[in-house]
Amino acid sequence: MMVHDSPLRKRHESYAGRIRTPPHADVARPGAAQGSQTAPPQVEFIAYGRSDQPEKIACEILATFGQLQGEYAAIRKGAGVMDCPHRGTILITGSDRREFLNRMFTQELKDLAPGSAKLTFWLNRKGRIESDLVLVELGDRLLVSLDITQVLQTITTLSEYIIVEDVQLEDASEQFHHISVHGPRASAVIAQIAGRSEFDLDERQTTTVKIGDSDVVIFRSDQTGECGLHLITSISSAETVWDALLAAEQDGNESSRRVRPIGWYAFNTARIEAGTPLFNVDFAADTLPHETGVLHDRVSFTKGCYLGQEIVARIESLGQPKQQLVGLRMQSDLLPVAGAQVFAQEGQGALGPQIGLVTSSTISPMLSAACIAFAMLKTAYTTPDTIVTVAAEGEQASAKVCDRCFYERASSPAAPPSTAPGANPKDDQ
Q1: For strand 370-378 and strand 387-392, is the pairing parallel, antiparallel, or unpaired?
Q2: Model pTM score
Q3: By C-alpha distance, which of 186, 403, 370 is closest to 276?
Q4: Alpha-carbon distance 143 to 231, whole Å?
């Protein structure tokens, strides 16, 4: 696989150079006593690829612009604009596309009308996940947003089932680029740059707006506990759309801007707090739908047959899979990294057998800097309030099993973060 480069990379590198950290009165910091400015923040990228093929890099994701606390605050109080080169696109056309895909995918698609979007799985015959998809129906064609690492394999495996149907599948990842906007001001930003008095899109809805001279497809999927708007634009228009997003709602004061570019680290913290697992991070190809924690967002149990349905139905009738994705709240300030082993606790806190692995972790600003994580655990140990032991920072630390959703905006008013998020770059690989 060739490395998929973002058309916005030069924009990111130049933006970081324009940021200046204001002087502080903290004499413990070099140069502060004289009121001199510190060096500008440095833009940072991380490699992204399949978790089972770490040696193969699919793309580089912008991790942070060096102002992590401000990026996170934009998600919770304004609008964080994120470049998403790790998302690929499949273009599906043909008069039989909806009927064909309904026989293939886990969601009911007969009601997939223009202006709607659905999340679904593409499974293999053994009922295991091949790819995690967002289907965006536009009327004359259908766009599929998915992990960039799964585009070619998804097209190849789906094509095997096209016999006489009028269905065409095309890798359009070099035609379209993905940008997401997360935060309570996301809709207002789109309204401003699209020249509308207001912009209101419900969850799983999609529409097309004009930004400058560009037609931009937008669908809503809330991943951070805030409004999440996902833009699909042509590669040639990506810079224009990006510039328009960052120019919205600005007052000229860089340190207090409500709309700002964000990287993976800030997004990662917010989506873990909101309980959103990600394909290729918390679950991957060969995982069973019942293990992912997003079963009912992706699978219909009232539709007709689809590939792998017998396995899914059998597990549903048995009541539980062998393992499940859960939340962990650490009982100390020790932060585990992705891949850290999780053990059962036996009598008097003795270390028991290994029962799973951590898949993601972060320090939660909304929980007063508590260390939280997702972990794939054996089902017998997934009861809420179960105490487990996790390998963290060279020690064995206790954690409590809990619901994955640590933050809900409706019950938790947004507040400025008390500390910068601190997830390890490797936590998500």
Answers
A1: unpaired
A2: 0.89
A3: 403
A4: 12
| Amino acid symbol at 177 | H
Q: CA-to-CA distance for 250 and 256, rounded, in angstroms? A: 9
Residue 427 burial (CB count, 10 A): 25
Q: Rounded to 10 degrees, what is the CA torsion of 52, 56, 62, 64?
A: 60
Report whether 220 contacts 230 (CB < 8 A): yes
Q: Are 344 and 353 in contact (CB under 8 A)?
A: yes
Longest dimension (CA), the chain: 76
CA distance 153 to 74: 36
- Identify the bridge partners of residue 391 per DSSP, sorted by sequence position: 396
Q: How far apart are CA 63 and CA 263, in angstroms?
A: 4
Superfamily of domain 322-429: Aminomethyltransferase beta-barrel domains (2.40.30.110)
pLDDT at residue 2, as a whole number? 61
Q: Rounded to the nearest 5°, which phi and psi values hold at 30?
A: -55, 130
pLDDT digits 0-9 by tens, 344-396: 998 777 899 999 999 999 999 999 999 999 999 999 999 999 999 999 999 99
Domain extents for the chain? 1-319, 322-429
Between CA 252 and CA 412 the distance in angstroms is 30
Per CATH, the homologous superfamily of domain 1-319 is Probable tRNA modification gtpase trme; domain 1 (3.30.1360.120)
What is the number of alpha carbons within 13 Å of residue 292 lying toward its C-beta?
A: 27
Which pair of structure tokens corresponds to residue 232? 């699909």
SS3 308: coil
Contact criterion met (CB below 8 Å) for 83 and 62: yes
Q: Which of 427, 124, 63 is nearest to 281 (CA)?
A: 427
Average pLDDT across each block of 10 residues of the chain; the chain has 429 residues. List them in order. 83 76 42 46 87 82 94 97 98 96 96 94 97 97 97 97 97 98 97 95 95 96 97 97 91 68 98 97 94 96 94 90 97 97 88 97 97 98 97 96 87 37 36
Q: Which amino acid is at 379?
A: T
Who's near 70: CB < 8 A, 6+ residues apart?
Answer: 255, 260
